[in-house]
Amino acid sequence: MLDRITASLPSLAPAEQRVARLVLADPRSFAQLPVRELAERAQVSKPTVVRFCRSMGYDGLADFKLKLAGSVSEGVPFIHRSVDSDDKTGDVMVKVVDNAVAAFLQYRNAASSASLEQAARAIAATSQTGRRIEFYGAGNSGIVAQDAQHKFFRLGVTSLATSDGHMQVMSATLLGPGDCAIIVSNSGRTRDLMDAADIARKNGATTIAITASGSPLAAACQIHLAADHPEGYDRYSPMVSRLLHLLVIDVLATCVALRIGPSLQPALQRMKNNLRAKRYT
């Protein structure tokens, strides 16, 4: 991104060049400062800052800063290096944490808000009409499915989660129009999950896939929430894909909660009060 800005300098207007040089001099600060301070530092008007961002192909300052923050963060040390057997504990901590942060930022920059909106609307409608909501996953994705059920249970949304292939196929057989199946898979190629998605879709249920782009599962479901992080299989590979899937579930659950509306807030507060009373007595 910074190389593209450098290459574009000669074609920019003089005022926009001052904004470009401000980016190149300190990209981290540029991504965090408000437009007023950016304009003052570059000695240009606020519209000039926005015009520069659009001339670089972005929707505006907010979009430019979002992509810039992601680009800068993904360039921190160790982020694309695997853990080695001779690493010290401090090195391991930095590599594992930065690997997860990079995956989250990549998801944030690439996620489709339209797909999230579509999925949240479908789940909220299913819940409000009293139909079935089911989460399917296998292996590590099965753990994510269980966590998803827990998150939605806290919202008063009744759901089922299963990681057993036979149970998934049987449950999918019982789904119908108005029901919703959310299938979680890192590879998107697990046979049982594919079968369950196919059965649920043919029965008229809404199918939502949280999986890699271009996978068979992504193509088989009506709504695809892309979660792209190829998991390494060497001995020291951190389990980032599970964290990424949990993040997607968290975003989705929050979107659904907002659509359920203010009626949810008193129930959540009562739940917290009861848990707090139980925990400290």
Give the SSE map.
Blueprint lengths: L1 H7 L5 H12 L1 H6 L2 H8 L3 H10 L5 H13 L15 H22 L2 H16 L4 E5 L2 H15 L5 E3 L2 H10 L5 E5 L6 H12 L3 E6 L4 H5 L2 E4 L13 H21 L3 H17 L1
Parallel strand pairs: 1-2, 1-3, 3-4, 4-5
Description:
The longest helix is centred in the middle third of the chain and has 22 residues, at 89-110. This protein has helices at 2-8, 14-25, 27-32, 35-42, 46-55, 61-73, 89-110, 113-128, 140-154, 165-174, 191-202, 216-220, 240-260, 264-280, and strands spanning 133-137, 160-162, 180-184, 206-211, 223-226. Strand 4 (206-211), helix 12 (216-220) and strand 5 form a beta-alpha-beta unit. Strands 2-1-3-4-5 form a five-stranded parallel sheet, sandwiched between helices. The relative contact order is 0.10. It has 281 residues and is of the alpha/beta class. It has 14 helices and five strands. Helix 7 (89-110) packs across helix 13 and helix 9 (140-154) packs parallel to helix 13 (240-260).
Could you name the key traits of this structure?
five-stranded parallel β-sheet, 14 helices, 5 strands, globular
